[in-house]
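Recall that a protein's primary structure is simply its ordered list of amino acids. Everything else, from secondary elements to tertiary packing, is in principle encoded there. The following example makes that idea concrete.
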Amino acid sequence: MLVRAFSPVLTLGTLLAAATASHSATAALRDAEGKQVGTATFTSAKSGVNVQVVVAGLPPGKHGIHLHAAGKCVPPDFKSAGGHFNPGAKQHGLHNPQGAHAGDLPNLVVGEDGAAKASFTAKGATLAEGAGSLLGPDGAAIVIHADADDEKSDPAGNSGARIACGVIEGK
């Protein structure tokens, strides 16, 4: 009888611990030659997923950076990563009145030395289970593009070729 009295409490405690656990993920960003050019770290937040990016060896200037819908990064063009991560069926662009995709992020600004550090929030994305999960059955990837994203043109912001890609993997 004593065991039965505590069994539901243990189950509830286990469920509460799992529900409040901090989710995180990482991605190693690689260029078309397979050289690692950076890392991305993903952590759960109330408003989505916080994304921290550190890169080196990229061309200076503004670059579109997005979360893509497939966890595949086959060089040299990285088209295997699919389109932008868009579980809400929105239009592209942080400044698009019809947007934005959950995978739309502000431009990454790379310095003259080829390096950049940036933090973004991917609103509408999650690392937990569900439709907005970056860790779902198809996975997801983070992609850096050759050009700046105009942040309004659908479907991809005219940000050019994909120059680096990393598969998002849960911890």
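The mean pLDDT is 85. The chain is about 10% helix and 35% strand.
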